[in-house]
Amino acid sequence: MSARRPGPGRSLRPLGVAGMIWGATLLLAGPELFRRLEGRVPDQAEQLGIGVLGARYLTQGGLEALAPGRFARLHTVVEMVHASSMLLLAVRQPSRRRIAVVSGAQAALAGWRAWRCR
Q1: H/E/C letters for each residue in 14-40?
Q2: Nearest-angstrom CA–CA distance, 91 and 46
Q3: pTM here?
Q4: Cβ contact 4:115 at 8 Å
Q5: In 3-state terms, what secondary structure has residue 53?
Q6: Quick check: 24 and 62 in contact, CB under 8 A?
């Protein structure tokens, strides 16, 4: 039995909605999530990164929810670049390793899902 691959847009609308929820969560409670994961308050640069990431997920999720499939390739590329940058951050800055691994794994999973739906 072969696994059915979803067609363009079929599973991207739920992924978009999930992205919007994740983006809103980062914007509303990102520093608290960071504190729970890292055991410390995010510094100014980390707070800026949380806000930018939240805005990106909210925007990207909105695009996928409104026009599923239309931006699947771009979504895939953006997520894979994000995952790669988090891998680099985890290697180069051990103090940010846990948050980088969590963020990178989430991005890799979202990118893989978007690639499957293109």
Answers
A1: HHHHHHHHHHHHHHHHHHHHHHHHHCC
A2: 17
A3: 0.81
A4: no
A5: helix
A6: no
Query: What are the contacts of 3-9 at 24+ separation with CB within 8 A?
Result: 5/116, 6/116, 6/117, 7/117, 8/68, 8/69, 8/72, 8/117, 8/118, 9/68, 9/69, 9/70, 9/72, 9/117
Q: What is the pLDDT of residues 53-107, one digit of tens each?
A: 999 999 999 998 898 888 888 889 999 999 999 999 999 999 999 999 999 999 9
Contacts of 3 (CB under 8 A, 6+ apart): none
Residue type for position 69:
G
Give dist(CA 36, CA 56) in Å, integer: 22
- Cα-based distances in Å from 115 to 6, 46, 106: 10, 29, 14
